[in-house]
Amino acid sequence: MVTVLEHEFYLSEILDRRVFAITKRIGRLSDLAIIETGKLPEVTQVVVDRPYGYPALTIPWDKVLLISNHEVVLDIAEENLAPFERAPQEHLILLHDHILDKKIIDMDDHDVEVVYDVKLAFQNGKLYAAEVDYSRYRALRRLGLHKLAKLLADRNKENRVSWLYVQPLPEQLGSFAGNLKLKIPKAQLNEIHPVDLADILEELEGGQRVALFNALDPEQASDALEEIEPRVQRQLIHDIEKERAAMLINEMSPAQAADILAILPRDEADTILKLIDREKSSKVEHIIGEHNEQILLYASPELIRLPATTPAAEVLDRYRELATGKNVVMYVYVTDAAGALKGVVDIREIVAAEPGQTLADIMTEHVIALPKDATLRDARMLFERYDFRALPITDENDQLLGAVSSRDVRAFRPRLT
Known about the structure:
3 domains, 21 strands, alpha+beta
């Protein structure tokens, strides 16, 4: 009698698991064969790949002693494996080779999704293919992106189809490369939130990212593009067809479109501007022009400046007094007698300072600052990259001219004329 430690699990979770002949490790699980009998297909054989040129094994299900997410144990001694040294017969349906990553189409031949996994269920000593799963959650887990998959766990509860709705597969499969056809019309699929899609796209490698992005419908792709970090936005727009990029940007408001086009190389931005709606294009160009306004117009000279010898405890004691009337209060800027910027200290570091420490002891000396001729666009890009709450502005002699807060920059939305 086979022992299954989990009564429900997924194909991708047991593929490549170690296989033992009693106690001797002999290879890894490469596939499961099913036959379509009754309402749910039943697993009849397990396929084992072996190393060092040994032939594959096709083992009847009744020879499986234990199956889990960690290992498969066969009720066969190693010396008795010879009768099972054969490839699966052509008429067998293999869940990995024939089902995984195939398209699901409905009864009207509309594409529905792609099979990312198969849910298996164990009952009365038998293992069944219970559902096909087309959720991005399972796709991400197969890619090893478990943290991102967890974000989507609650959003993909309905992204599965019971095998009850799958039409019988052809009797002669051979090297089957077809689609999985449903008995039902195309259903409304749950949409992934654009923020979650952005997280997914940012984590993927270039080729995978473009493939997934091109598979999204225009509305999803446009919404996700707005949420993606600038570095990935630039790479995606560079990699996809410019006509598609223009179509997606045309879906956005002029301000949203300008945010994206402003971070592109000028030649790419110009190419896309020529492809979008003419009226919107003129508005976007106007906004991009305002993105090029000097950052000093948005900066404030009202910030906390102190010499490096100032004790941290003194700053903490006098903080209310020092912050009164200041517009940037989350950082203390350390300057010399001539007003040159020498370092910066987060107020949280001052709170955590040891007794007797001065600002010189705890300050960050390599300060990321904006030059005085920086633009609003430059500031937005630095804030996106470093996630600071404020940035100092200096001249060519490192003189501290002021600072601009991320809140003020990110809140800015140019007015249309």
